[in-house]
Amino acid sequence: MATLGFIGSGNIGTALSRLAVSAGIDVVLSNSRGPETLAETVAELGERARAATPEEAARAGDWVIVSVPLAAYRKLPAAALAGKVMLDTSNYYPMRDGNFEVLDSGETTTSELVQEHLADAKLVKAFNNISDFHIPALARPVDAADRTALPIAGDDPQAKASAADLISRLGFDTVDAGPLAESWRFEPETDPYTAPYFTDPDATRAGWAKLAEAIRSGAPMEMPPSDDPGAPLPAAQLRTLLAETSRKLTADRVLA
Ligand SMILES: NC(=O)c1ccc[n+]([C@@H]2O[C@H](COP(=O)([O-])OP(=O)(O)OC[C@H]3O[C@@H](n4cnc5c(N)ncnc54)[C@H](OP(=O)(O)O)[C@@H]3O)[C@@H](O)[C@H]2O)c1
Fold it and tell me: Has residue 153 been placed in a domain?
């Protein structure tokens, strides 16, 4: 029986826990406020789900999905995550997370920063380049003709293979983007970042620019539509996007 632990059970954690339960995988959810605050989500997920502390979720998981705001990375339980295949969904948004000089300068990537804190975890960056609402919309059974591909990056080949196996069971193909040092290739506003999974990627990027302008000017904000049905992204197309993208440092981004 496989178990998937979650540290962070918000938009991404919940979306992935639903797919896991549907795939016959037990889930252990956790958040910062305590297991009792997850009772409703656990009830919705059914008998394969329970809630626990982050340490317990980490120890219980054959894999652990860490899906918290980047600013919380130093609070992650390093001892409990030692030796675990850990999928890191984090993105860096300075307006939310505060500024990290090493990220603004491109000296390192978000997942390398997290890996530095969790030195003994086998970190694989995954699920950070797809919007939460496209996770259920684009997940497909393993034999479907229109499977969507997601990039992964990591420094441990066996951990990457194990993460790819999990991701496949959850409904997606994977493309290996290389070690964590290359994971900038699918960080915010690069070519593979969220827009290609929308039905109209150009309109989505234009929407980011409009949102950024509204934030700057104090005008009413129009969030990108969360009812977009999504567009399957085949592996070959994702490989091209990963190969051809340029790096987007904080200063190059419209939304940071
Ligand atoms: N939303 C998206 O579409 C999307 C897409 C790709 C990647 N991401 C990235 O994935 C990460 C999570 O995003 P999200 O939208 O799922 O965030 P979210 O809805 O705000 O959920 C964050 C979760 O992290 C938990 N958390 C915060 N600090 C924690 C700590 N110290 N220990 C344990 N749990 C903690 C929160 O628990 P409490 O509520 O109890 O504080 C909450 O369950 C972010 O880095 C985000 O940038 C998001």
Answer: yes
Give the pairing type, strands 49-51 and 122-125: unpaired
**Residue 155: domain span:** 69-252
Burial class (CB in 10 A: 0-12, 13-18, 19+), 120: exposed
Segment 68-81 shows an average pLDDT of: 98
Measured from the Cα of 54, ligand 1's closest atom is: 33
Q: Is 7 in the pocket of ligand 1 (CB under 6 A)?
A: yes
What sign results for the dihedral spanned by CA atoms 177, 182, 185, 187? positive
Looking at residue 220, its pLDDT comes to 87
Asked if the structure places residue 5 within a domain, the reply is no
Of 8, 9, 5, the closest CA to residue 40 belongs to 9
- Decide: 17 in ligand 1 pocket, CB within 6 A: no
Domains: count for the chain: 1
CATH code of the domain containing 120: 3.40.50
Number of DSSP helices (H) and strands (E) in the chain, helices first = 11, 8
Mean pLDDT of the 130-159 span? 98
Q: What are phi and psi of 38, to 5 degrees?
A: -105, 10
Residues 249 and 256: their CA atoms lie apart, in Å, by 9
Model confidence pLDDT, tens digit, residues 221-238: 888 788 999 999 999 999
Here the tokens at position 18 are 């639903």
In a domain, 11, yes or no: no
The alpha carbon of 58 and the centre of ligand 1 are apart by a number of angstroms equal to 16
* Contacts with 8 (C-beta within 8 Å, 6 or more apart), sequence order: 30, 31, 65, 66, 67, 68, 89
Q: What is the distance between the alpha carbons of residues 87 and 154, in angstroms, rounded to a whole number? A: 9
Confirm whether 61 is domain-assigned. no
